[in-house]
TrEMBL record:
This is Helix-turn-helix domain-containing protein. Keywords: DNA-binding. InterPro entries: Cro/C1-type_HTH, Lambda_DNA-bd_dom_sf, TransReg_Diox_bact_type. It comes from the Bacteria. Signal peptide: none annotated. Residues 14-68 form the HTH cro/C1-type domain.
Amino acid sequence: MELAMNFKSMGQKIKRARERKGYTQEELAERVNLSVQHISVIERGIKAPRLETFLNIANELDVDADYLLADLLNVSEQLTSNELYDMMAEVSKKEKRRILEVVKVLIEMADK
C-alpha cells in the first residue's frame, strides 16, 4: 500500500471525528494550536502531522490513535474490532439490532 494513500485515510478519519464532535476546522485548529490550513492539509492527507500534533488531535477528538493509524500499520483483528465498536457507539439501539442481523446473514453466507 502506498504511504500517501494511508495518510489520506488517516486524514479522512480525523475529519469524520472532527465532524462528529461538531467542530469546524477553525475550532479544531484553535483547540490544538494549529492553523486552519495545517488542519486542512492533514485532513486531505497531503502531509502527516508530527507526533505531538497527532496526539493533540487524537486527544481533542477523543479517538484512539490506533484507529487513526490502522491503515498505516499491519493491523491486527483487534483494531478492526475497535473500529467496529466505535462505529456502533454512534447508532441507536434499533439500528444496532438491524446491523447485527445483517452481519449474521453475511457470516452465514461466508461460511458456505
